[in-house]
Amino acid sequence: MEYIDIKNGYTKEDIIKIANIIKSGEILILPTDTVYGIVSDSTNEDAVKKIYELKKRKMSKPLNILVSNKKMIKRVVKEISKCEEKIINKFFPGSLTIIFQKKGIIPDIVTSGLNTVGVRMPNHKMLLELIDYLDNPIVATSCNLAGEKEVINGEDAVFKFKDNVKAIVDGGNLKNGIPSTIISLEGDKINILREGQVSKEVLEKEIKRC
User: Quick one: how far is CA 103 from the chain centroid?
Assistant: First the structure.
């Protein structure tokens, strides 16, 4: 396992090193704006399968993807409604995942065969730079075994997963440790699939403006 310490900042070389690991089809652990995540290339089916195996996650449970800009969202989803556009403008980048109809660029293994995919733009400078450099969305799921608590500390990530991933990027302690809220939109109706950092009340208030 390669250990990459960014607790006191990161360099362009760090970004390139992490990107090359992802491009090679390996999985690694890194900090996000919510919790530590296990990540891979979203278009590499073998790499995505490694995440399921590591987490002991059922293949019937879809994974979400992270993007770095609106242009990338449009590359992976079929359509963005006016209301979804407003929600994106308000909450991206941030701790909100939106379910969209996906395009073929995202393999079925990511979405458990569903024609939808969860998309988030993280509010994390290093992560956005990494995804920009890759010019490709990444799969990201919480750094924990199925049913266990999320990891919010780099040392814990190393302790639990050092023998199972290609690299661990240590960003120290994460302040919030609360996963993203996951929603889907049907017209002006909002379905909250998981309530996280963005509350139901805040979302419903914003939906009324659509």
Answer: 17
**Residues whose CB falls within 8 Å of the CB of residue 108, separated by 6 or more in sequence, listed in order:** 114
Exposed, middle or buried, 130 (CB in 10 Å: 0-12/13-18/19+)? buried
pLDDT digit string, tens, across residues 124-150: 999 999 999 999 999 999 999 878 888
Q: For 154-183, what is the mean pLDDT?
A: 92
- Rounded to 5 degrees, what angle do the CA atoms 107, 109, 110 make? 75
pTM exceeds 0.85 for this model: yes
Q: Cis bond leading into 93, ω under 30°?
A: yes
Contact 162, 168 (CB under 8 A): yes
3-state SS, residue 101: strand
The number of beta carbons lying within 10 Å of the beta carbon of residue 36 is: 28
User: What 3-state class would DSSP assign to 1?
Assistant: coil
Give the chain's domains with CATH numbers.
2-207 (3.90.870.10)
Angle between helices 12-23 and 125-134 (to 10 degrees): 50
